[in-house]
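$ run holo --ligand "adenosine-5'-diphosphate" --emit tokens
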Amino acid sequence: MDYSRKQQLRKLITERKRQLTENQLIDFSEKLFLHLESLPAFQKAKTILLYHSLKDEVRTHLFIEKWKEEKTILLPVVDGENLKLRIYKNSSDLRTGAYGIEEPTGTLFTEYDKIDLAIIPGVSFDEQGNRLGRGKGYYDRLLPNIKAYKIGICFAFQVSEEIPTEPHDTKMNLVITENGILNEK
Ligand code: ADP
Ligand code: MG
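-- output --
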């Protein structure tokens, strides 16, 4: 159905990303996490799903290191068609997995109801909280298991007017960029 529109959006965002330097992306990422840290939903959360960023995503590495003692940090691990979650303790537990993503080798985590907050990456988000991923549907298969408050994070140039959605797409409750909260749902 909307596959070509989704593909077009992915290409457009990739083009925009090419025009920014690595230092700009690092700077935006730092600003974004200051907004996240100011939210009660973050401050109260004990168990948080995060992700270990790739070069073109909001940089999570420093943020994860900063909070790993105080919070239980979960990171996704690609397992075939699905994402499984493992507890992150230390950078020495990371191994490079599928798609070159660093994945923890720590304890498998399956108590999805104990997750207090989910921080979700995306190629693009819109003001309604709709999410566009890389096109493999990994988070679409994971998120129905997770009832926690979901925050999509991306750079401001990744925000779209309207993302085409399908019934399997899960909405975010909130989207944050380096400029702050986009819109709360
Ligand atoms: P993304 O969310 O990564 O942008 P899409 O939303 O376009 O990607 O989904 C990509 C594909 O993932 C879909 O065409 C579908 O085949 C598969 N998919 C998504 N959600 C599910 C689901 N809940 N169960 C099974 N397959 C799914
Ligand atoms: Mg999707």
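-- notes --
The chain has a mean pLDDT of 95.
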